[in-house]
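hiii so um. not sure if this is the right channel but i have a protein structure encoded as tokens and i wanna go backwards to a sequence. like what aa goes where. can anyone help
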């Protein structure tokens, strides 16, 4: 159950694991399938009438293409630094809400082949109607090298911040 603007919403997630990776998930009666490369990195995520294809360069997710209901969006990520410890928790949100941003992927991105120490500086999305938007990220790291704060800035929106505590 989650609340949004004072209204309660109920959802149900079921994850189907094989060799430590989610191969399929069900979210509110919709089925999603996951495909991985030989390095156990997510390279494709499919749902009804939609598919996201992902390209990695080692530990960096460099681009993704989303095809949904006849429309295409291309995302390109740039990087400036990495964290010494931990990982980049909101990676599942960058790729068209893999698993609908299932909260478990924030804490355990390895379940969906999304664990990375690389920290995106920006994500630019170009849609098939030629509209473009860029989201910028800045970070603070603690003394041990874990991300302690992520600030996200988008044009026409107020910046927002994630504050992270690692245990």
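sure thing!! here u go:
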């Amino acid at each position: 159950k989650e609340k949004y603007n004072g209204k309660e919403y109920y959802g149900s997630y079921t994850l189907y694991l094989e060799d430590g990776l989610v191969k399929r998930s069900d979210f509110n009666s919709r089925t999603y399938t996951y495909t991985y490369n030989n390095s156990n990195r997510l390279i494709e995520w499919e749902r009804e009438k939609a598919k996201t294809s992902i390209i990695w360069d080692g530990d960096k997710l460099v681009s993704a293409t989303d095809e949904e209901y006849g429309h295409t969006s291309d995302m390109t990520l740039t990087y400036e630094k990495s964290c010494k410890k931990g990982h980049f928790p909101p990676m599942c949100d960058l790729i068209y809400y893999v698993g609908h941003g299932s909260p478990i992927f924030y804490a355990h991105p390895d379940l969906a082949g999304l664990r990375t120490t690389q920290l995106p500086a920006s994500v630019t999305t170009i849609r098939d109607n030629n509209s473009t938007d860029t989201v910028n990220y800045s970070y603070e790291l603690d003394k041990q090298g874990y991300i302690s704060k992520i600030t996200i800035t988008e044009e026409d929106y107020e910046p927002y911040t994630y504050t992270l505590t690692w245990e």
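oh and Residues 109 and 126 are 26 Å apart (CA to CA).
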